[in-house]
Amino acid sequence: NTLVDAVLQYSKADADAPAVREPVSIAETLKWTLANLHSEIRSSHSVITSAVLPEVTGSESELAQVFQNLITNAIRYRKLNQPPTVHVTAVESDHEWMISIADNGIGIEAGQQERIFNPFERLNPESPGLGLGLSICRKVIEKHGGRIWVESETNEGSVFRFTLPK
Q: Can you say whether the dihedral through the CA atoms of 99, 137, 81, 41 is positive or negative?
């Protein structure tokens, strides 16, 4: 059932389908996402903070899926000796918003940073999940006309960044 659900989520994020174009408060989307992840956040002693976040145009449910996948990964791939911290920021340019989700986790080797966005790709086969979360994020962000990437160093945490056009 988990596999079928994940594949259905992946197919729903089809980048060829037109994106919903409605006003979305990133702050409210983050708040809703954190409420959904309350038990994971509490049990891991995670600290999630954010700067002032903008209103964008898109699909609130799809963007919430992106936040949920990225924050879940930050909690899942944490260092064993410290609670996860996640900080969400937004930077405005002339044509787009860049949203950043920074964590203090285990990080990702430079040679693996593009690979993690491929469907069913997991760097550690023993870790939970099916390897679809980040590929769903990529499909959703591309469907919204943006791009997504990661900046990371092993044992230094990761910063996932994505853009959304204005």
A: positive
Residue type, 148: I
- Residue 65, exposed/middle/buried by CB under 10 A (0-12, 13-18, 19+)? buried
DSSP 111: G
Q: What is the pTM of this model?
A: 0.86
Burial 107-145 (b: 16+ CB within 10 A, else e): bbeeeeeeebbeeeebeeeeeebbbbbbbbbbbbbbbbe
pLDDT, tens digit (0-9, with 9 covering 90-100), for 112-164: 878 888 876 666 656 655 568 899 999 999 999 999 999 999 999 999 999 99
CA distance 105 to 79: 5
